[in-house]
């Protein structure tokens, strides 16, 4: 009896696992570039109120008159939103695919060489998302006076006054320290994973190099981001 095997349904690279992983890696690189620029900009806070507020103002007038006021910021925001949609979409599809491939859980789950950073990508990513929502409400969208500052209007007028009031509070500093630890772990494993996707991790030396690059990127971003808040907190004591 002749048997026929139906040819596998042809699917484009976009919905293949490697396509989804490339989407994760590509959007991840966009986030890394953004956080590096944001971290560098935040360091201007060390130069004082005028330098920081002028910088925040320049971000909005950059490219005028070719761009409208705030135009560059809106371009960056749209790119970030699209990157976020792609990153989350790819993550959810890859998670669903992983679960479908192993519907029955392991009887004994042994940690065979995975790192804490790699095991916390899902929850860490979700925690980072929650942090970014809090962060945007706190510093961009609402700018509430959560700090009992005497001059609540000044918080809305001057980004420097806003961050100075915020990071004088130990609990705000704590939220940011925890968020930056989560960010560092996510970046450390993300960089490694992305180089795996790009086929760069095929020797032990290449894997060690990918881990080292991940560690350097994570350390620069975590330390760079935490310098202004820690400085402001100590200065407020
Ligand atoms: C210690 C760490 C951080 C500090 C002190 C900080 C500070 C700030 C401040 C002051 C603003 C408002 C800027 C302005 O309106 O001129 C801002 C906006 C923003 N931050 Fe952060 N940030 C930190 C970490 C992060 C991280 C880790 C991310 C992303 C993963 C992030 C994403 C954003 C975004 C998307 C905006 C909105 C920009 C806009 O559309 O106006 N920030 N941040």
Distance between the termini: 86 Å
Mean pLDDT: 93
Q: What is the CATH architecture term? A: Up-down Bundle
- Helix percent reads over 70%
**CA gyration radius, whole angstroms:** 22 Å
Keywords:
mainly alpha; 237 residues; binds protoporphyrin IX containing FE; 3 helical TM bundles of succinate and fumarate reductases; 9 helices
Write up what this structure looks like.
- With 237 residues, the protein is an all-alpha fold.
- It has one domain: 3 helical TM bundles of succinate and fumarate reductases (Up-down Bundle), CATH 1.20.1300.10.
- The protein is 72% helix and 0% strand.
- The chain has helices spanning 17-42, 49-61, 71-101, 116-119, 121-141, 152-157, 159-167, 170-197, 204-236.
- The structure holds protoporphyrin IX containing FE.
Topology:
Blueprint: H1 17-42, H2 49-61, H3 71-101, H4 116-119, H5 121-141, H6 152-157, H7 159-167, H8 170-197, H9 204-236
Question: In brief, what are we looking at here?
Answer:
The protein is mainly alpha-helical. It contains nine helices and no strands.
């Amino acid at each position: 009896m002749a048997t026929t095997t139906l040819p596998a349904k042809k699917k484009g690279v976009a919905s293949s696992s490697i396509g989804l992983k490339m989407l994760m890696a590509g959007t991840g690189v966009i986030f890394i570039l953004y956080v590096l620029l944001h971290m560098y900009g935040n360091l201007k806070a060390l130069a004082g109120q005028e330098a920081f507020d002028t910088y925040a103002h320049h971000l909005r007038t950059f490219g005028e008159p070719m761009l409208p006021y705030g135009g560059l910021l809106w371009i960056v925001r749209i790119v970030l939103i699209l990157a976020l949609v792609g990153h989350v979409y790819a993550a959810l599809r890859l998670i669903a695919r992983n679960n479908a491939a192993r519907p029955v859980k392991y009887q004994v789950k042994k940690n065979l060489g995975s790192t804490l950073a790699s095991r916390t990508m899902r929850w860490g990513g979700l925690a980072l998302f929650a942090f970014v929502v809090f962060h945007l409400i706190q510093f961009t969208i609402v700018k509430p006076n959560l700090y009992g500052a005497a001059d609540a209007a000044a918080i809305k007028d001057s980004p420097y006054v806003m961050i100075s009031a915020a990071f004088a509070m130990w609990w705000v500093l704590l939220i940011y320290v925890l968020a930056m630890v989560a960010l560092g772990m996510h970046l450390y494993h993300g960089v490694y994973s992305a180089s795996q996707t790009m086929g760069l991790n095929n020797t032990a030396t290449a894997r060690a190099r990918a881990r080292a690059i991940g560690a350097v990127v994570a350390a620069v971003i975590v330390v760079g981001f935490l310098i202004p808040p820690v400085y402001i907190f100590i200065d407020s004591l």
